[in-house]
Specification:
Elements (H helix, E strand, L loop, with lengths): L3 E3 L2 E6 L4 E8 L6 E4 L1 E6 L6 E6 L10 E6 L2 E6 L5 E13 L2 E10 L8 E3 L8 E3 L19 H4 L7 E5 L5 H12 L3 E5 L4 E4 L6 E4 L2 E2 L5 E4 L6 H14 L2 E2 L3 H8 L1 H10 L7 E2 L7 H8 L4 E5 L8 E4 L2 H13 L4 E5 L7 E8 L2 E9 L14 E4 L4 H13 L4 E9 L2 E8 L5 H7 L3 H12 L12
InterPro entries: Asp_endopeptidase, ATP-grasp, ATP-grasp_RimK-type, ATP_grasp_subdomain_1, Peptidase_aspartic_dom_sf, Rimk_N, Rp_bS6_RimK/Lys_biosynth_LsyX
Protein name: Probable alpha-L-glutamate ligase
GO molecular function: ATP binding; metal ion binding; ribosomal S6-glutamic acid ligase activity
Length: 460
């Protein structure tokens, strides 16, 4: 390597950590280098622990924060210049200065009281470096402007993420989310939504679980069952308040789970759907049916899932009987036009990050107009039209969902959205299409958690 001369302060970059510019104090009296870090939390398996931490690379700019993660290579007791000792995690990373780079060990500590965000110790100063202790910044200057530009995101490294899956079920979808995430080097923790509890305050809103505050996650993947929607969405809201990226937001899940609310959202965005009507009073039964059209009609409980609580009434008399029965149970329901030409088939489009990543045609079991796979239906891959693709994307966007299963009927007047599912199952569609759908979900998470360029401050 070509010889370099360092002054007592130099601009350096730590590309493996996504820190393109940081000022470091050169200290030959210290053995190990140190980096200013806060919110330091250990994660991952005990055999290969990692550490997640935040760095404010610019002194005095707490609003600029870069989240980093790295494997832990050691834990060391370090005594600072004022004689105080502390246990610190040690990580290995790459130091880049003046067009050259080499590996160094760094300890993590809170240097909030120090002007230098980094200290370069003897171990980092290899044989090709001379020190001129009376001078500073002898190597090329870098610039903090990089934290305000899009290049911050493009240069950000792929790092190990800590991800929470909110789920109470050990099913195919949850297992695949864990398996694919771990294959990519992430740590994926499954959390029982109903065992979360919340500390709600303005300074530090927190989510607790089993007697401890939950750590900081890079992303949350909600897989919330319909029976716990109100509590599950309250937990997601808490993560949103903390600033954690949630693949599906609380508002979109709440709206999609309530059939009436969901149809109102679709109607407001002018998205095609079967004609639908809803009424609270039994006096309005005949008017309600007249709004939808002639029998056969579909009568649906507002809280129905997987085809349960969905009844096909083939005659006007049958429709009146079903409506009376639902009213007798004090159940909320809606009445919908039956799209005959769909012939017991629908199309499930899986939308991830605003794109249809897979689609399948589901056909109901013999004699069943419902095509749910949970009810014995079958599925096969299907090519969809541009209109169907656009409808599915618009429906997912209407609810602000990062992952959505959009169910369409093929009608004579174009695609009609039956339902938008905020916790779609992956088993049926992955097996029917042979696609790695969960991998696409992780592509989106990895892109979304990259650092955002900070706003520039206006000159006073």
């Amino acid at each position: 390597m070509e010889k370099l001369t360092f002054g007592w302060e130099e601009w350096v970059a730590l590309p493996d950590l996504g820190l393109p510019a940081i000022k470091a104090k050169v200290d030959t009296g210290a053995r190990t280098s140190a980096l200013h870090a806060h919110d330091i939390e250990v994660f991952g398996p005990a055999s290969k622990p990692k550490v997640r931490f935040n760095v404010h690379p610019i002194s005095g700019r707490e609003d600029i924060s870069i989240t980093c993660s790295a494997p832990i290579i050691d834990r060391r007791e370090v005594t600072s210049s004022n004689g105080e000792s502390e246990q610190r995690f040690v990580i290995a990373t790459t130091l880049e200065v003046g067009g050259q780079s080499w590996p160094i060990d760094v300890t993590l500590t809170n240097r909030a009281g120090m002007t230098s965000r980094m200290l370069l110790g003897r171990q980092a100063l290899t044989e090709h470096i001379n020190i001129s202790a009376t001078e500073r910044r002898l190597q090329p200057d870098l610039n903090y402007d990089v934290y305000h530009t899009a290049s911050l995101r493009t240069a950000a490294p792929q790092r190990a993420l800590r991800i929470a899956v909110l789920s109470r079920e050990d099913n195919y979808s949850t297992r695949r989310i864990v398996e694919v995430g771990e294959e990519r080097g992430h740590t994926v923790e499954v959390i029982d939504t109903t065992r979360c509890y919340m500390a709600i305050n303005q300074l530090a809103p927190e989510v607790h679980y089993d007697g401890k505050r939950l750590p900081r996650y890079d992303a949350v993947i909600p897989r919330i069952g319909a029976s716990i929607t109100p509590y599950g969405t309250a937990v997601i809201r808490q993560f949103e308040t903390i600033g954690t990226y949630c693949v599906n937001g609380s508002a979109g899940i709440t709206a999609s789970r309530d059939k009436l609310h969901a149809h109102q959202v679709l109607a407001s965005k002018k998205i095609g759907m079967p004609t639908t009507a809803f009424a609270a009073s039994p006096k309005d039964t005949s008017n309600l049916m007249a709004l939808v059209g002639t029998a056969p009609l579909i009568v649906k409980l507002l809280e129905s899932t997987q085809g349960k609580g969905v009844v096909l009434a083939e005659t006007k008399k049958a429709a009146e009987s079903v409506i009376d029965a639902f009213r007798g149970l004090r159940a909320n329901f809606l009445v919908q036009d039956f799209v005959k030409e769909a012939a017991g088939e629908d199309i499930r489009c899986l939308v991830v990050a605003g794109k249809v990543v897979a689609s399948m045609k589901r056909t109901g079991a013999d004699g069943d107009f419902r095509s749910n796979l949970h009810r014995g239906g079958s599925a096969k891959i299907v090519r969809i039209s541009k209109e169907e693709r656009d409808t599915a994307v618009r429906a997912a966007r209407a609810f602000g969902l990062g992952i959505a299963g959009v169910d369409l009927l093929r009608s004579e007047s174009g695609p009609k959205v039956l339902e938008v599912n905020s916790s779609p199952g992956f088993e049926g569609i992955e097996k029917a299409t042979g696609k790695d759908i969960v991998g696409k979900v992780y592509d989106e998470i990895e892109a979304r958690v990259k650092p955002q360029p900070a706003r520039r401050r206006k000159a006073g």
